[in-house]
Amino acid sequence: MSGTAADKLADDLARAIIEGVFPPGARLDEQQLAQRYAVSRTPVREALRQLATTGLIEVRPRRGAIVTQVTPAQLEELFVAMAELEATCARLAALSMAPTERRRLQDLHETMGEMAAANDVAGFTDANQALHTLIYAGAHNVVLADWAAATRRRLSPFRRAQFRVEGRLPKSHSEHDAVVRAILQADAHAAHAAMLHHVTRVERSFEELCAESAASASA
């Protein structure tokens, strides 16, 4: 139970931090968070541990969890690194995936199409991570897969936030379609280019969300 509660709480806290509810420098007190979100302190601790791996917060001795300042330049660097890592994974997956891996990728992609059509944000968000993980594994390069997964964890709150942009689900699925089609056709060059485009669109969607939040705050 605590794992599910912690995952949801981590998403809620990440959203609150991104939207400025908890500004940079704010201390996140475990007891206060437990009361605010009506949970026990156990999922709060786990949620804070998850957020610490993303760089959104920093756990300091005797001060606890502090919201950090993530600058636009730092985010851009992370997204550029993510795009290059994922594009390389897609290129290698196009060359290296076994037939069973390709079928699994295709099946998941088709299921995600149904989720996008039903506007199932929660299901699509979870499946999205699974799809990218399949591509990392399909590259058959453990070092590269580990780097991609670690970078993705750091960007996870920002990547998940993109799905709050209206109409993002079908667009994301369309971008995935180009990636998956290229991998299934063993077209390494097209897979690389399609994944670069996809991660760039993810970054732009997050920027649009931030702009909308800023406009709403100033209205």
TrEMBL record:
Tell me the keywords, alphabetical order: DNA-binding, Transcription, Transcription regulation
Q: Which domain of life is it from?
A: Bacteria
What residues does the HTH gntR-type domain cover?
A: 3-70
Q: By its UniProt entry, which PROSITE patterns does this protein fall under?
A: HTH_GNTR (PS50949)
Signal peptide positions are none
Keyword check for Transcription regulation: yes
Sample GO molecular function, one term: DNA-binding transcription factor activity
Q: What is this protein called?
A: Transcriptional regulator
Which species is this UniProt entry from? Novosphingobium colocasiae
